[in-house]
Amino acid sequence: MISTCQLRKTYYRGTESVEALRGIDLDIENGKFIVILGPSGGGKSTLLNLLGGIDHPSSGSIVINGFALEKASEEELTRFRRDHVGYIFQFYNLLSALNAIENVALPLMARGESYKSAKIRAVETLHRVGLENRLKHRPAELSGGEQQRVAIARSIIMKPAIILADEPTGDLDSVSAHETANFLKQLNHELGITIIMATHNQTLVETSDEIYELSDGLIHKR
Question: What's the whole-number mean pLDDT along residues 168-186?
Answer without folding.
Answer: 89
